[in-house]
Specification:
Strand content: 25-35%
Number of domains: 2
CATH class of the largest domain: Alpha Beta
CATH superfamily of the largest domain: Alanine racemase
Radius of gyration: 23 Å
Number of helices: 11
CATH architecture of the largest domain: Alpha-Beta Barrel
CATH topology of the largest domain: TIM Barrel
Mean pLDDT: 97
Structural class: alpha/beta
Number of strands: 21
Helix content: 25-40%
Shape: globular
Bound molecules: ligand LLP
Amino acid sequence: MYHIKNNDFYCEEVLLKDLATKYKTPFYVYSLNKLKQNLEAIKKPFLDNFPNGMICYAIKANSNLTFLKYLSQNGCGFDAVSGGELERVYTIQKHLNNVVYSGTTKSYEELEKAILYDIFMINCESISEIKHIAEISQKHNKKVRLAIRVNPAVSPKTHPNIDTGNKGAKFGIAMDHFLEAALLIKSSELLSLQGISCHIGSMVENEVYYFEMLNQLVDLLELLKKHDIFISHLDMGGGYAIQYTQENTINFEKLFTHYKKVLEPYNLIPIIEPGRSIIGNVGALVAKAVYTKQQNNRNFMFLDAGMTELIRPALYNAIHKIVAITHSSPLSVSYTIGGPICESSDIFRDNAELYATEGDLILIENAGAYGYSMASNYNTRPKAPEVLIDGAKDLLINKREEISDLWKTEIIHDL
Ligand code: LLP
């Protein structure tokens, strides 16, 4: 999402150095052009194979309203996982008729909101949830379209924290409870079983795991057929890997052609829920090197951004490439790069070779997905601003939080 010209770093036509002066560090920067490319890269092979297929962007990857609006206007629906995410979508498009709603623990109020907004489909993850929905649908005398999210017992062999398809995971209804769930929905007058949904995990690097998942789903379609139950939609989740360093990525052409071949006899509308593959490499985090220190044979470089801005290295041992945007050191130094947070895990990475020292600007790549959306106020740090670059224009799409905002919900008592 950036390029180098005469030793200067640009996002599209904007000098990153200039942005740092204007917005102060740390901040997130995104390229609109890259977003367009990513969307096209998935849309074309998907829609070529399934002209009426639905791309439901996983809001959790990056839920900025400007991005949601852009995606909505460019043919995407959404995968939401909370009442808050439903409200975000409602804010930008005033309806939820292209939204699927996943998650193990939707509250009564959240379900009620989804139903009153006439959501496209609720992906149910337990028998109890289906009973809750039946109750709410009766209370309001409203029909509700459901999918059963199944746990296919297929592990995509990613980091254990983001593997949702393995048998032991908390997500979805186990294969051997699927029929019970389907019959329960069938027996409820106001509920209709519209689909089956499945999401095996995130950072999936090989199509074969999706092929295995699809085999399981086909077994379920056959089972439904035996019971004279016919559905219209098959939601096959997201999880397509991006390249942080050495990872493989998914060949969409291969994946969707396979989906088409297998699904040919069923006449279903497929849904996919990509998040990271649409927004991950669109964004970067720009920070400043505040201090360096040498001890125990380590060269530390401390940035003004940390796990509060990008928690992935601390949470999943994720490796993000780090480059220096300005270079005040004549020599390359191998740094351990950390942040300001009082946690030993607040380290972005070891062995980053940089011609940089105190005062230089540092860029952390691939922070577009699960960067801002997982940011926190730990250590009472205001969240950093988000800036979108469109050609030569920089658009502030999210302001830096004010420190005083951070305690505006608190009530001080004299005790
Ligand atoms: N659909 C469902 C039901 C999901 O739970 C997720 C992600 C997605 C779609 C989108 O997955 P994606 O295409 O973005 O991989 N914080 C972690 C990732 C957690 C993903 C949670 N679910 C990370 O930073 O790697």
